[in-house]
Design goal:
The complex is a heterotrimer. Chain A is an alpha+beta fold. Chain A is built from 17 helices and 27 strands. Chain C has a five-stranded mixed beta sheet with strand order 2-1-5-3-4, with helices on both faces. Chain C is globular and about 55 Å long. In chain C, 58% of the residues are buried. The chains are: A alpha+beta, B alpha+beta, C alpha+beta.
């Protein structure tokens, strides 16, 4: 049978989803009796003292079961995801939970929320990096930062010291070579300061957790959160102190995540409420709450200075980055290191790079993982400046990049060996599709056209471990058990494909069960594009383990060495035996009620393969922030666009877009194609339209899907103008040479559009979203300058 | 419960009597695309909701020599696609077509768009530029009000307790009339407009503007008739410069707000641009009539 | 039957509507939306709730053949009308509507949360305009938000049906008694 690897097999979950049979978390709501509902009282202020919080009237309302506040006994909020922290004496962002009500119905819960007597004393707030980073900012989010315990933090080097602002809560420094000296050798400098707006991943399905109180005092949870084992169950066990045998977490079909569900911001509170009330409870976020109370991305301000020779060789990169992480007390996650990793995988920087990175708190919704993990933000300025250098040097944007790219087998600025990079192929594919080195014909009236290109790399963080179990049933059917997340990217299809390929059977012959901690073995979660690599390897190895056992059984039955047996689906092919081919199910002995001596293969008892896969650990970096293993492997992408800018309104319209991904050897080309197009669609939204807007109270003004502008069916051009390429460079340790790709494609879209805008109307954007208003302002400034003064 | 009582009267008189009985504590239900979100977001919690679809004839669309009559309950998509309304009232159809999405247009009504009285309302702009007149019924008497006087503030109209907007009369446009409504958004019709600009020009025999109407959306507490722009245009030939100047005057006579959709400064700029485009298209249509 | 309180129970009325070809009667409070009635009272959970605010389209069903947002329709508005949800689109578990089969074949589904609504809206677009261009299809889908796919595989799937790759889709309906 032909290999399944690289085929666009039909998704295993497509039938369920397209017929309405597939159950999502909220579809379980009707299945249980006496489900109590949870509603939240949220702070309307970005920063306020809570002078009075009286829950007595709420508690007295008929039908109210429990009211929880930040003073709930036995809770260490430091252990909770930041977005799930209930306020105590101070509300830190508009939308923070001040109290949580559990009641018999949603209506009663909402009434009870209104009956809570709360008085605030409004304090000044800081909403963005520029306000937060001041030495004497209007507000300090975590005044106790200096005196806090480090808790479970395992990266003491990320702790911030000598902070220029009391809102800095993390820091990371890195140095390779000698940037100062190298800059002196540069023929020219390109520098700039770049900003990014705050965004919400906005999957179509709002957060929803239902927690059943079991008869033995345990809990079973159905949730659309991520990481049934690694995030939710372990979170409940570790933080709420429950026993592992008494916690079961199930992930139904899930309506998208894009990283936003990796913090259990709803699951822990739901489980806690379930334990406190001993009732089955449900907590469902409204769309507004998804904006103001579920984690956002983290915006990054970067200041980039590149030194270059006149032939385009870059000799040094002086790089500053600050992650704006929202309202986090006791930050132990952010330091700038994660985002700034975007500066590493693509260019050599002449082996002179200095990274000065920080994390700063603000009075906005806390940030957490989301697609790209800070790299789109971190690489925007770099790609813009490289395009700018190319323009100034009259060089092709493709040539200047080629001159500076790291090649396979070379080392990046941390000192890591790059074992797989397809970035040149990626770049060439999109450059050619859009003819980015040529000028477009200006034939659209007030819409001026321009073309731009950018590239990107993103690390895969070597996170956690994956386990898989593969059963060969006694009738020859095959099953796979895994706990990786299926956010919609097609992970379970790819995993099934791998197992089917090992057994040389069609994908339909393998049944996959996923996401139930009582049934499927451990996986951390789907983050940092790790699933294909981690879980894929585990699936492949588990299948191989199963096949090895089958070979042993067949060999024993026919007196052969196992190496003389090949397994192909239900058949074993033998060499050196009186039979050529064996039907494996026939070796499973049927048993009746009185059959004795039931050892060995018997009907009803599968042969089970199992595997654990874990990437190698990183090496702790030294004072220079470098080590030869800081990350794991890298995914790469390039994007080229032809865009038109309306000189009257500032609107940007994408006319043509090409995106390429180095996926390693692709497992499923059709799901990858979907990820590429979905990724660039989302990235166009991020780059041109999406951002949190705040009113003067610090509340999010556009916390709905009408004013928070998601890209729609007309954001990308028609199909003939959307090009996708898979340009693989095999990953030596990936399953069949595959790696993940879901984040890389979102990174180069923004800077490619920025360059197209420059070519179109001669203005350089310094951040995104590049809204029409901002573009028009730049165009007006351009005209004012060229008219020699103010109008 | 979002409201306590529900009624579906068979006659418009019964409906009016119910409104009188409940006063401020009742809301009318037509397409529901404005009412239902407000009920769900707890902006309104009326005692009673009164459905209008039991009343015969409320959705009628008739075209005669004198003009176009639209019943309040005429669904926007029906108006958008009605071939009888045709090219004569093309801006009426297009304005309806600019509302939100296909799903909303399949149920939202022209009367609802008017009574919701949002300053960003699109469908009514097509009527405003045609000088439409509102047909208002009450059990205690009927009256007619020009649509341009119908709106008194965001969400507020001249309707008194017991009054129901029964429909609109759009007088047949004179020869050499052209109308256009431009809705400016970032994401097409799904967005609420940043600004909207509607224009009607009626040309005299000399090809100059004999009569006109300029109506702007999303720049004032109600849809705004830009009288200064109209005054400027009367008697003029619509050259490029004149049209550009009209845009300047329109944008110079508004005080829009900054909100989540756009800043005041940007709205001023966009009124300049889109008044111009609306006039250009209206002029072209007028010349072809 | 979930009872909120006495007042709500007293306010309930009978509403009759045709859902997926069957006449059904529900006894609910008039303030319930069609989406709530479909999901809670008729157990038709294929229609999803994405924003409950008329802005995402994930709750789209066909009412008398036209796509509408069921979260925004009160049950009295739906009474007497014909509703088609995703569950009613197939003729049998192994006889899917051409659009459904095309969505599967073209990998037009990722997380799937927008899919039921997307398929129904696509059906309505093609039913009204069997030769709809790609631009017209995209225009018609403007009220259906999808965060995962970027719409290319979705439009490819729809155009494949339009172009007859799944037979005559209008005839499929006739033959399968829709």
């Amino acid at each position: 049978m032909e290999s399944l690897i690289g085929k666009g097999c039909r998704r295993i979950d497509a039938y369920d989803k397209v017929t309405g049979r597939g159950l999502y978390a909220s579809d379980y709501d009707n299945q249980f009796t006496h489900v109590a509902q949870i509603k939240a009282l949220r702070s309307p202020y970005a920063h306020a003292l809570i002078k009075k919080l009286d829950i007595s009237r709420a508690q007295a309302l008929d039908g109210v079961i429990y009211v929880m506040t930040g003073y709930e006994k036995g809770i260490d909020w430091d252990q909770f995801p930041k977005a799930a922290v209930l306020a105590m004496d101070r509300a830190l962002w508009a939308g923070q939970t001040v109290a949580l009500v559990c009641a018999e119905t949603e209506e009663i819960a909402e009434k009870a929320v209104d009956l809570i007597d709360v008085e605030y004393e409004v304090l000044p707030h800081v909403l963005d990096y520029y306000d937060a980073i001041k030495p004497n900012p209007a507000a300090v989010v975590d005044p106790d930062y200096e005196t806090r315990d480090q808790g479970f933090m395992d990266r003491p080097a990320d702790r911030a010291t000598n902070r220029v602002s009391p809102n800095i809560v993390g820091a990371y420094f890195m140095n390779e070579g000698n940037v100062e000296e190298a800059m002196k050798t540069a023929d020219r400098i390109a520098e700039g300061e770049f900003w990014v707006g705050k965004k919400t991943a906005s999957p179509m399905e709002c957060a929803n957790a239902l927690c059943r109180y079991d008869n033995d005092g345990g809990i079973t949870m159905w949730s659309n959160g991520a990481g049934v084992h690694g995030v939710i169950k372990q979170g409940i066990v570790r933080i709420l102190g429950m026993e592992e045998s008494h916690v079961r977490v199930i992930q139904p079909y899930m309506g998208g995540s894009f990283g936003s569900r990796l913090n259990p911001f709803i699951e822990l509170l739901t489980a806690l409420m379930c334990i406190r009330t001993k009732r089955t409870v449900r907590y469902k976020f409204t769309r507004k709450e998804l904006f103001i109370a579920s984690p956002s991305n983290w915006t990054c301000i970067t200041k980039v200075k590149l030194g270059a020779k006149n032939d385009g060789t870059i000799v040094a990169n002086d790089y500053y980055l600050c992650e704006e992480i929202g309202a986090a007390l006791n930050n132990t996650f952010f330091s700038g290191r994660l985002s700034s990793s975007g500066a590493a995988p693509v260019y050599t920087w002449g082996h002179n790079i200095r990274m000065d990175t920080y994390a700063v708190t603000t009075n906005t919704v806390p940030a957490a993982e989301y697609r790209g993990l800070g790299c789109p933000e971190a690489e925007f300025g770099i790609e813009c400046l490289i395009n700018q250098l190319a323009d100034e040097l009259h060089m092709s944007p493709v040539e200047i990049r080629k001159k500076n790219m790291i090649k396979r087998g070379e080392r990046d600025c941390y000192g890591e060996l790059i074992t797989s990079t397809g970035i040149e192929k990626c770049m060439e594919a999109v450059a050619d599709a859009i003819k980015v080195e040529e000028e477009p014909v200006q034939d659209m009236g007030v819409w001026k056209k321009g073309r731009g290109i950018a590239v990107a790399g993103k690390q895969n963080t070597p996170l956690g471990r994956s386990e898989a179990e593969v059963w060969f049933n006694s009738d020859g059917t095959i099953e796979l058990f895994i706990s990786c997340d299926e956010n919609g990217m097609g992970a379970t299809t790819a995993m099934t494909q791998i197992v089917a390929n090992e057994f040389k059977v069609p994908i339909e012959a393998v049944k996959t069960t996923k996401g139930d901690t009582a049934i499927t073995p451990y996986d951390n979660y789907s983050a940092s594009s790790r699933t294909t690599y981690n879980c894929g390897n585990a699936c492949m190895l588990a299948a191989q383990d199963c096949i090895r056992q089958l070979k042993d059984e067949v060999a024993r039955a026919y007196g052969l060495h196992p190496s003389k047996v090949e397994i192909e689906g239900t058949k074993a092919i033998l060499k050196g035996s009186y039979v050529q081919e064996v039907d494996i199910p026939s070796l499973f002995v049927p048993v009746g009620m009185f059959t004795q001596g039931n050892w060995g293969l018997q009907k009803g008892s599968p042969v089970k393969g199992h595997a654990v896969y874990c990437p190698a650990a990183i090496h702790q970096w030294g004072k220079d922030g470098r080590a030869d293993r800081v990350w794991n492997w890298f995914q790469y992408s390039a994007c080229a666009v032809e865009a038109a800018v309306n000189e009257e309104t500032g609107q940007i319209r994408i006319l043509k877009i090409a995106s390429s991904a180095d996926t390693g050897n692709p497992i499923n080309t059709e799901t990858i194609r979907g990820q590429i197009i979905g990724g660039i669609h989302m990235a166009v939204g991020f780059a041109t339209m999406e951002e949190h807007l705040y009113d003067d109270k610090g509340q999010m003004w556009n916390c709905n899907l009408s004013d928070y502008r998601l890209p729609l069916s007309d954001t990308l051009p028609t199909n003939d103008n959307v090009f996708t390429f898979i340009c693989p460079d095999p990953l030596p340790d990936g399953p069949y040479g595959a790696k993940g790709m879901a984040e890389s494609i979102t990174i180069p879209v923004g800077p490619a559009i920025a360059e197209a805008v420059y070519k179109a109307v001669g203005v350089r954007v310094t951040g995104y979203p590049m809204t029409a208003e901002r573009i028009l302002k730049l165009i007006e400034d351009r005209d004012a300058v060229s008219e020699g003064g103010a109008r | 419960m979002r409201f306590e009582e529900y009624y579906e009267p068979d006659t418009i008189e019964e409906c009016s009597r119910l409104l009188i009985k409940f006063g401020d504590h009742a809301k009318l239900l037509a397409g529901g695309t404005d009412l239902v979100p407000k009920l769900k977001n707890k902006i309104w919690h009326p005692q009673a909701v009164i459905g209008l679809f039991g009343i015969p004839g409320m959705d009628a669309i008739t075209v005669s020599e004198e003009g176009l009559t639209l019943g309040s309950l005429a669904v926007l998509r029906t108006i958008q696609k009605d071939s009888e309304i045709g090219e004569k009232y093309v801006a009426v159809r297009e304005a309806c077509g600019h509302v939100s999405s296909l799903q909303v247009r399949n149920i939202a009504t022209i009367g609802g768009n008017a009574c919701n009285a949002s300053p960003s309302a699109d469908a009514v702009e097509g009527l405003l530029i045609h000088n439409a007149v509102c047909d208002i019924y009450s059990a205690e008497g009927e009256r007619k009000v020009p649509l341009c006087e119908f709106f008194t503030g965001p969400g507020k109209t001249v309707l008194k307790t017991g009054e129901i907007l029964r429909g609109f009369f759009v007088p047949a446009p004179k020869p050499h009339t052209g109308c256009a409504y431009k809705k400016y958004t970032i994401r097409g019709d799904s967005d609420i407009s940043i600004v909207g600009a509607g224009a009607r020009v009626t040309l005299g025999e000399d090809g100059k503007v004999a009569d006109c109407r300029i109506s702007l959306a999303s720049v004032a507490p109600t849809p705004l008739i830009s009288s200064k722009t109209e005054e400027f245009l009367i008697g003029k030939e619509l050259t490029k410069d004149v049209i550009a100047k009209a845009g300047d005057i329109a944008s110079g006579n508004i005080r829009p707000i900054t909100d989540a959709r756009g800043t005041a400064e940007y709205r001023v700029e966009m009124v300049r641009v889109w008044t111009r485009h609306a006039l250009e298209e209206a002029y072209e249509r007028a010349q072809n009539n | 039957m979930k009872i909120e309180n006495e007042e709500e129970l007293r306010g309930r009325k009978e509403y009759s509507l045709t859902v997926n070809g069957r006449k059904v009667m529900v006894f609910v409070h008039p303030s319930k939306t069609l989406l709530e009635v479909l999901r809670e009272d008729l157990d038709l959970i294929g229609t999803k709730c994405g924003c409950d605010d008329t802005n995402c389209g994930v709750c789209t069903v066909l009412m008398d053949g036209h796509p509408v947002k069921s979260c925004t329709i009160l049950i009295p508005q739906a009474a007497g009308h014909t509703i088609l949800t995703i569950e009613g689109l197939e003729a049998a578990p192994d006889n899917l509507h051409p659009l459904q089969q095309s969505f599967i074949d073209h990998t037009a589904i990722q997380c799937g949360f927008c899919t039921p609504a997307m398929v129904l809206t696509a059906k309505a677009i093609l039913d009204e305009n069997p030769h709809a261009s790609e631009e017209e299809i995209r225009e018609g889908l403007h009220g259906n938000v999808c965060r995962c796919t970027g719409y290319k595989q979705i439009t490819e799937a729809i155009m494949a049906v339009r172009d007859g790759e799944y037979g005559d889709f209008l005839q499929w309906e006739e033959v399968n008694h829709k």
